[in-house]
């Protein structure tokens, strides 16, 4: 059985006019991409009175070194570099995990599942065995537990990044992981983009 549509039954009245009664969308723009939609039309506009510095600008991070005034979760500690001086509340992927699991918590380290996933030695040993199937062996030490714990945190919040993709981890989580699995000489490699 074949169906046909009578196009004459549709009138121009059935077309939605997105500009009716609106003051911000009334004008016709060259950038319209059909149906009256313009790229970025629903994005917030920048207040010209605000001072904006790019995310990787040195000016943005100068005030972060040697203090934790930038922390909004209440658990971050001063970090040695600008790249490492980031709070869990500043990382979209980490905030998504917090909001999904326990939205009333202020920090990723406060989540009930943080300690079992990132600090429990048995869980980290099992995660290491999975790692070991694909990469070189790492002798058991606090360094290995720290490394696997960081990987667990990345897997939990970002899924899989790839071999050369790196992201700074929140200072609160790094501090708790380092406190749980301290280096014997108190020296840590820190974050590197490459």
Q: What can you tell me about this protein's structure?
A:
The protein is mostly helical and 194 residues long. It is built from 6 helices and no strands. The chain has helices at 58-61, 92-101, 114-118, 121-132, 142-158, 171-180. Helix 4 (121-132) crosses helix 5. The protein is globular, with a radius of gyration of 25 Å. The termini are far apart.
List keywords for this structure.
single chain, 194 residues, mainly alpha, 6 helices, 30% helix, disordered N terminus
- H/E series, N to C? HHHHHH
Radius of gyration: 25 Å
Shape call: globular
Q: How many domains make up the coordinates? A: 1
Helix-and-strand structural type: mainly alpha
Question: Unreliable segments (pLDDT under 50, ≥5 consecutive)?
Answer: 1-33, 40-44, 46-61
Number of H/I helices = 6
Q: How many strands, what sense, and barrel or not for the largest sheet?
A: none
Write the layout of secondary structure elements.
Elements (H helix, E strand, L loop, with lengths): L57 H4 L30 H10 L12 H5 L2 H12 L9 H17 L12 H10 L14
Helix pairs in contact: 4-5, 5-6
What would a concise description of this structure say?
By secondary structure, the chain is mostly helical.
